[in-house]
Amino acid sequence: MPLTLASAGVPQTIKRIGGKDELQRFLASLGFIAGSEVTVISEYNGNVIVNVKESRVAISKSMACRILV
Asked: For 3-34, what is each residue's pLDDT tens digit?
């Protein structure tokens, strides 16, 4: 399921990152790599705030849809 459907506060494992190579490289630089753990903190104005690699990161809803957990 896409990250946007994940419940807040529940740790999830990233299964796959979709999208163009450019987007995949950008998300990888933020720590979104298949097999790593991610937790949705909250959703604010369409943006998703997540905890990944012990950092809080805000990403757009369209990016969060490309991250499958």
From this structure: 999 999 999 999 999 999 999 999 999 999 99
What is the amino acid identity at position 50? V
CA distance 45 to 31: 23
Q: Would you state the structure tokens that stand for residue 63, as one six-digit string? A: 């990016």
42/7 Cα distance (integer angstroms): 9
Phi-psi region of 59 (alpha: psi -120 to 50; beta: other; left: phi over 0): beta
pTM, two decimals, is 0.88
- Residue 60 CA to chain centroid, in angstroms? 9
